[in-house]
Amino acid sequence: MKLMGLSREEVKRAFKNGEFTIAVYGMGKMGLPLAAVFADHGANVIGVDINERVVKMINNGENHVKEEPGLDELVRKNVEAGHLRATTDGVWAAKQADIMVILVPTLTDERGNMKLGPVYDVAEKISQGLEKGDIVITEATMPPGTTESLIPILEKSGLKPGEFGLAHAPERTMTGTAIRDITGQYPKIVGASDEKTLEAVIGIYETINKKGVIPMSSIKAAEAVKVFEGVYRDVNIALANELAMWCEEHGLDALEVFRAANTQPYCHLHMPGAGVGGHCIPIYPWFVINLAKKSNPRLVKTAREINDSMPHHIVELTIKGLNQVGQPVKGSNILILGLTFRGGVREFMKSAAIPVIKELKEWGANIYAYDPLCTPEDAERFGAEWKEDFKDIDVIVITADHKEFKSLNLKEIAEQVRNKIIIDGRNVLEPEKVQKHDFIYLRVGSI
Ligand SMILES: NC(=O)c1ccc[n+]([C@@H]2O[C@H](COP(=O)([O-])OP(=O)(O)OC[C@H]3O[C@@H](n4cnc5c(N)ncnc54)[C@H](O)[C@@H]3O)[C@@H](O)[C@H]2O)c1
To answer: Phi and psi dihedrals of 157, rounded to 5?
Structure first.
């Protein structure tokens, strides 16, 4: 059933009755939860992926995104019920579907330069199956203006915008909380090419999201929402880092000051730390910087510089700790805890551990690493030797907030190490507990 021209209430009824088909392109960490949620609300869903293993697993009712709580059951149940299936054939899926959602990787380098190959590849496939009344929705995060750059590709179908609909509805979530977020943690943001498309897309997302939909005046405005959310985080983390380093200079504990300041409702000082990693927060500011013509987003650029300098500050704290016990950096044994960019996710984009390892090696330190989500080969790839104990370690540097690190047995560690120094780049430990075992304990913004 084609949805353009239906009211949102008609769309919701059709959704629950399984009267239309949605193809979701990209069955990864974001796409599979979305497809499963769509299916769970009654739609016929086809998941499309170039990865044959992923497609096979889904068709067997198996979930391959293990980090996502609840997804095993959601996939199994909806595949068994015949609401969800998967294919590698993107053209076939487009021919079956009335709604096509693009949720493939939008790859960038560290400065936000896009490699939109997967998105354009999917748009080409969709154009070969696009019919009058179909709606194409991008959910993948993209620089403002990118969704509309797909129009010439989609027009290869012989249809013009207005005959097909185009919309952007950014994925406002992250790995590990996707199902919760998609179904109602935050409202869905939607921008569309025309009123009919907007109305239909509102109906789709109101069906699955308890928090409802915020309609935007354009596709580009919807794209900007997601990008600005990331920029806000980056700039505010940079502010926290800058103030925390100022506190260090003035003998103040930044977290004590921040906590007290944040009791005032207009103050939201963020958590300082070892830097900002991942595919989102450190990348989106570059979309703004790269697209600026006359405007000059100086604050955004400076924030990037500050956050990128934080791994160097972690090295400075490591040296400060070693100085306090009179141990030279050269030849000291340093254990990096956490190779991933954050806790609970095996992703390495702009992980703080990588520059910290590199710089400490340049100082002549022996670098060891451990991460509950990694392998010895990962450690080797980043220039460290895998180590699962604390024997003869001089400094422990925590660079990712894995839950396992919150419950480190400090008594046992204190017995194994050569020097008792912890640099907590993610504020995962409780200072009182660490100090009880006579560790030198330094954080960004500690006295
Ligand atoms: N992971 C997150 O926390 C997160 C949060 C918000 C937004 N996003 C955005 O969501 C989008 C998808 O991210 P993800 O984390 O799900 O990626 P992912 O790498 O986990 O999964 C992407 C999937 O797309 C498939 N794929 C690649 N090229 C394809 C093609 N041409 N046709 C069909 N399938 C193809 C891959 O095989 C993979 O299974 C990105 O734009 C990302 O920026 C991600």
So the answer is: -70, -15
Counting DSSP H helices and E strands in the chain, the numbers are 18, 16
Q: Which residues pair with 24 in a beta bridge?
A: 47, 101
The domains located in the chain, with CATH, are 8-218 (3.40.50.720), 301-443 (3.40.50.720)
The protein residue with its alpha carbon nearest to ligand 1, atom 22, reads: 28
Ligand 1 binding pocket includes 340 (Cβ within 6 Å): no
Q: How far is the CA of 141 from the centre of ligand 1 (A)?
A: 10
Across the chain, which has 447 residues, the per-10-residue mean pLDDT values are 97 97 97 98 97 98 94 98 98 98 88 87 98 98 94 98 98 92 96 98 98 98 97 98 98 97 98 95 94 96 98 98 97 98 93 98 98 98 98 98 96 97 97 93 95
Integer Cα distance of 216 and 325 in angstroms: 58
Dihedral angle computed from the Cα positions of residues 433, 439, 440 and 444, in that order, rounded to the nearest 10 degrees = -40
Kindly give, in sequence order, each residue whose CB lies less than 8 Å from that of residue 373, ignoring residues fewer than 6 positions away.
340, 344, 345, 346, 402
Nearest residue to 226 via CA among 214, 208, 236, 237: 214
For residue 63, the one-letter residue type is N
Mutate to test the pocket of ligand 1, among 104, 122, 348 (most ligand atoms within 8 A of CB): 104
Question: What is the model's pTM?
Answer: 0.93
Burial class (CB in 10 A: 0-12, 13-18, 19+), 369: buried
Q: What is the 3-state secondary structure (H, E, C) of 3-45?
A: CCCCCHHHHHHHHHCCCCEEEEECCCCCHHHHHHHHHHCCCEE
Query: Quick one: how far is CA 230 from the chain centroid?
Result: 10
Give yes or no: 247 in active site: no
Instruction: Check residue 161 and report its DSSP letter.
Output: B
Angstrom distance (rounded) from CA 226 to CA 267: 22
- The residue whose CB lies within 8 Å of the most ligand 1 atoms, and thus the one to mutate among 24, 25, 27, 30, is 30
